[in-house]
Write a sequence for this structure.
C-alpha cells in the first residue's frame, strides 16, 4: 500500500536535514525544504456531485536556481469514506522568493484504480525564522473526470 512510503519519506527528510547545512532564507542557490502539509477542500466529479476533502502530507523541494525547483509530495486524502494516496512531482517556479507557483504531475491511488493527477498551485512563503517558514497555498487538482479545490498550509524548514 502507498502509505508505507510515508515513514520512509519522513526518514529521508530527517537524514537530509542532519547532513545538510543551514543556508540563508531568501533566494539562495541549492536551498532545500522539507514541510508538513495539512488542508481541506472540495471535490467535484462530472455529474457535479461534491464531497469534502481533507489532506495531510509531506513535501520536499530542491531549488536548483533562484527561480526553479523540483520536489516530491506524498499526501493522504480523505474524500467521503475513502482515503486515497497521492504522489506528485512538483515543478516549481518562483518569480519572487516568497511567491511559489507549482505544476505537479502525479498519481492518485484509490481503492479501485490508479488515476493520473495534475495539480496547479500558488503559495506564499512567510519566514518565521531564517530556516522555518509557513506557507498558505491554494491548488486545483485534475483527474479523469474529477477536480478538487484545496486550501492547504505547509509548515517546514529550509536547509
Amino acid at each position: 500500500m502507498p502509505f508505507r512510503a510515508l515513514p520512509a519519506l519522513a526518514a529521508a527528510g530527517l537524514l537530509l536535514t542532519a547532513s545538510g547545512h543551514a543556508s540563508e532564507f531568501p533566494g539562495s542557490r541549492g536551498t532545500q525544504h522539507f514541510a508538513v502539509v495539512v488542508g481541506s477542500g472540495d471535490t467535484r466529479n462530472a455529474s457535479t456531485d461534491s464531497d469534502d476533502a481533507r489532506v495531510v502530507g509531506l513535501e520536499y523541494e530542491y531549488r536548483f536556481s533562484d527561480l526553479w525547483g523540483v520536489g516530491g509530495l506524498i499526501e493522504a486524502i480523505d474524500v467521503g469514506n475513502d482515503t486515497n494516496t497521492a504522489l506528485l512531482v512538483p515543478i516549481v517556479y518562483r518569480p519572487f522568493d516568497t511567491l511559489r507557483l507549482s505544476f505537479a504531475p502525479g498519481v492518485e491511488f484509490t481503492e479501485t484504480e490508479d488515476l493520473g493527477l495534475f495539480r496547479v498551485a500558488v503559495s506564499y512563503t512567510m519566514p518565521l525564522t531564517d530556516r522555518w517558514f509557513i506557507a498558505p497555498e491554494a491548488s486545483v487538482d485534475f483527474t479523469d473526470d474529477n477536480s478538487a479545490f484545496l486550501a492547504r498550509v505547509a509548515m517546514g524548514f529550509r536547509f
Notes: The CA atoms of residues 119 and 141 lie 4 Å apart. The chain is about 10% helix and 60% strand.
